[in-house]
Amino acid sequence: EKFIENPFKPGERLYKTGDLARWLPDGNVEFLGRLDHQVKVRGFRIEVGEVESYIRKHLDVKECIVVPKQDTQDQTYLCAYIVANEKEVTLKDLRSSLGQSLPEYMIPSAVVQLDVLPLTPNGKIDRKALPEPSYEREGSTYVAPRNDLEKKMVDIWEDILGVTPVGVHDSFFELGGHSLKATVLIGRLNKEFDIEVPLREIFRQQTLEEMALYITHADKQDSVSIPLTEKQAYYPVTSAQKRIYVVQQLDKGGISYNIPHILQLQGKVDLTKLEAAFQEIVKRHEAFRTSFHTVQDELVQSIHEDVALSIEYSKKAPEVSIDTMIKNFIRPFHLSEAPLLRVGVVTVSEDVHFLMWDMHHIISDGISVGLFMK
How far apart are CA 81 and CA 66, in angstroms? Predict the structure, then answer.
């Protein structure tokens, strides 16, 4: 307790270092990383400093830094930059060692070994000078696909992993694959080859050659597409939608379930084309034409054929801040009125605009928002 005693005087300026640390039982402080280097990977909030501390602890490395990167599908993954003491540290070594202590989503999908970490003039690590990771085969040369099955597999792997070329001896996970991409792979294999592949087999048959051999001997199963349901006045809701609806009814004026986004646009904006683009999205996806109602004491959803969406356009007045305009834009939705989406544009100057959109969580989620933005 003597270490937690407050050494600061009331009223004096306090500086926060931004370092992440923890007290140890012996009274020492263990440095874990930086508070300003948090990142979200596959829906999990990660402190990269914690991953760095495990790399230093479990592998023979002198220095390391873990940096978030974006793959070809705009998904975030972790890349470890390592300065080793003696022998080279491979991605296989990294996955094998860290897999004993960390969950899979915290293990870097790429590793780059450097002689030294680049530094800025003031001695900090120069993140901008770190090279982009590139896949290099470890201990084997590239072997091209040898038959039609392996060629189809290569096309699927290259599309999912964003890596080219893929050889038959390459490992799915050493090419940057993870459990989420493995799930995508299962769907593609089912559609392409009419087989049902359990997730555990993706982890067992990790090389393309092993996976192709498994597919050759797997029993064929006709893939079943989800059929369109017959048109109805009302449709049932999911348990998640029911829960959101109940909470929203308890706080009808609340915005806890709003999902707003703001994007600054540079240059001239054609409002007519912008509105047509949003209207096309509403026309294409039923979620944006859905409203929610109580019928015979049961919550149901109704999908409308046509829903008009118009952009709320305004010019920024000198006396009103952009923050205030954004705050006023985010307001409660009435769940019985479609669309549960609104769009606004604030013009600051001829070449500076703010595009704002807000949607309710009962019709959308984080993955949907990413697709919407794309």
Answer: 6
